[in-house]
Amino acid sequence: MRRWVWVGLTVALAVAGGGAGLVLHGRREPVRWRTARVDQGGITQRVTASGTLNALIQVPVGTQVSGVVTALTADFSSLVKKGQIIGQIDPTPWLTALRAAQATLQSATDSQATAEHVYQRNLALWKAKLVDDNDLENFKLAMQVAGANLETARAGLRTAQTNLGYCTIKAPVDGVVVARLVDVGQTVAASFSTPSVFTIAQDLAHMKVTAAIDEADIGQVRVGQRAFFTVESYPDKQFRGQVSEVQLNPVITNNVVTYNVIMEVDNEARSTYLPGQGQGQGQGQGQGQAQDQDKAPARDRVKDQGPRARRGSDRKASGPIAGGQLGTLEYTTARYMPPGSPVYNGNLALFPGMTADCSIVTNHREGVLRVPSAALRFNPAAFITLPEPHAETASHAPAATAGAGGQRAAGASQGARGVVARREERLWILANGMPKAVPVKVGVSDGMYTEVSGDGIQAGLPVLVGAEDYKKAAAGAAMPGPLGGGGMRH
Fold first, then answer.
1. 355 close to 232: Cβ distance less than 8 angstroms
2. pLDDT digits over 129-153, tens only?
3. How many angstroms separate the CA atoms of 436 and 390, rounded?
4. Which residue has the higher pLDDT, 379 or 290?
5. What average pLDDT does the structure give for the chain?
6. Reduced to 3 states, what is the DSSP secondary structure of residue 224?
7. How far apart are CA 388 and CA 410, in angstroms?
8. How far apart are CA 395 and CA 408, in angstroms?
């Protein structure tokens, strides 16, 4: 009898313990929501991209005739004027062609004079009835052919003179030589394409940034918008520009479509951004260089031969010497710069070819209601079971799942629970302790904050932006260790 009593007590204790375990195991901790408040402030929407700096107008200077380069009178950093001779191609074959054209012209002139004389003589005979009509027509046709040959010879002479003129390379614009692509003695061939000899930047005081904007952002970019960019040479300096052109020609690279956007910027003095290069010190250095140059030998001097213009920020000061580009050098490694030539002294901060990290301001709003952008991408359905009407309001949310261990929200980014892939036009607030969806109208966004408006949306309203993840907290608490909760201390 006692045996059955003990068995009954054991079974009762087991059932009681199992029930208590089920009760404890089934107990659900309340979800602890993370909230933020709707506030009022400004939002600046931007489009970012990388671009390349270049002169506003940069002209490749080529040669239209083939031959050997016999002379160069400009080099890197040379300041040149429009029409200035900067190179020479060997004119020998073109002089020969010119003489041949002159001889051809002389021969055609004589032939035309002879044909005209023959025609006039036979015309007199025709009037005397000594030459028939057919012979007179033949003499007239020969005179016309000789006249056409004379015009052809004259055109050939003009072509030969033009080609000989092409042997002398002249600067097409005022500017600074930023590239020299040939050396004296090099042969250039202009048979199928025009080989470049120099590249001239017309005015380094005014630069442009060419940036590739993704097709997803190009719709927001407009001419006249403000632009900001930085370069690696001056990481703490932000240069300001303006969008001047949005090119419609698409550039497709590896199935990625971009559009080129041009931003104009005024160059500035480099001494402003270099440590220890203030105005006073710059003047002292300039005086010291001038004194040292007076002591240098005449063959090593490169003198300043022109007046300085106004600052590069003045739009009227356009030209090769704008922005203090004209300067002096005591010594130069340039091979083809004659003594006394004006040079660019490199006193402007921005150089052609620099990489610019650009930011274009596409929209700006002040005094608007805004929320953290995370609030528009949060869905509480991953943490609790929502009533059916609320679950339907979330277009990107999955069907509600029970408990914190339910299925993750559809489109969750990188496994983040409750975060949908795309923002939704609704916010979640707490009503009687339960999340409630509130529809809103979404405006501009800067990535961190987004403009919202709608019924009931006002400054100070708390909205849901996330929830504490109890699984991670429990996993951290259950880590084994010498003093962990799962072990025993002896």
1. yes
2. 888 999 999 999 999 999 999 999 9
3. 7
4. 379
5. 78
6. coil
7. 17
8. 15
Cα(41)–Cα(166) distance, integer angstroms: 64
CA distance 346 to 435: 63
Q: Which of 156-170, 187-201, 378-392, 455-469 has the highest mean pLDDT?
A: 156-170
> 269 near 324, Cβ under 8 Å?
yes
Q: Using CA atoms, how far apart are residues 435 and 373, in angstroms rounded to an integer?
A: 18
The token pair that represents 10 in the structure block: 């054991």
Nearest-angstrom CA–CA distance, 89 and 254: 42
Dist CA 105 CA 126 (whole Å):
31
Query: φ, ψ for residue 152 (rounded to 5)?
Result: -65, -40
Q: Which residues pair with 424 in a beta bridge?
A: none
* Range 364-379 average pLDDT: 91
Give the span between the Cα atoms of 9 and 3, in whole angstroms.
10
- 441 contacts: CB under 8 Å, gap ≥ 6: 425, 452, 453, 454
How far is 446 from 458, CA to CA, in rounded Å? 20
C-alpha span between 46 and 473 (Å, rounded): 38
Cα–Cα distance measured from residue 362 to residue 81, given in angstroms and rounded to the nearest whole number: 40
Rounded CA-CA distance 383/407 in Å is 9
Place of tokens 């025993």: 488
Q: How is 180-200 classified by DSSP, letter by letter?
A: E---TT-EE--SSS--EEEEE
Q: Residue 43: CB partners within 8 Å, gap ≥ 6?
A: 363, 364, 365, 368, 370, 443, 444, 445, 446, 449, 450, 451
Could you tell me whether strands 168-170 and 175-180 are parallel, antiparallel, or unpaired per DSSP bridges?
unpaired
Q: Output the six-digit token pair for 3.
A: 């045996």
Cα–chain center distance at 485: 58
Reply yes or no on whether the pLDDT at 12 is more than 70: no
User: Per DSSP, what are the bridge partners of residue 201?
Assistant: 58, 176
Q: Which of 198, 203, 277, 209 is nearest to 240 (CA)?
A: 209
Contacts (Cβ under 8 Å, ≥6 apart) of 99: none
pLDDT in tens, 201-218: 988 999 999 999 999 999
Other beta carbons within 10 Å of 338: 12
d(CA 135, CA 337): 68
Q: Which helix (H) or strand (E) holds 262?
A: strand 256-266
Which helix or strand (DSSP H or E) is residue 104 part of? helix 92-127
* Token pair 């809103």: residue: 440
Q: 397-438, pLDDT tens digit by residue? A: 433 333 333 333 333 344 466 777 677 789 999 988 889 999
**SS3 label, residue 364:** strand
Fold of the 91-166 domain? Helix Hairpins (1.10.287)
| CATH 1.10.287.470 boundaries in the chain | 91-166
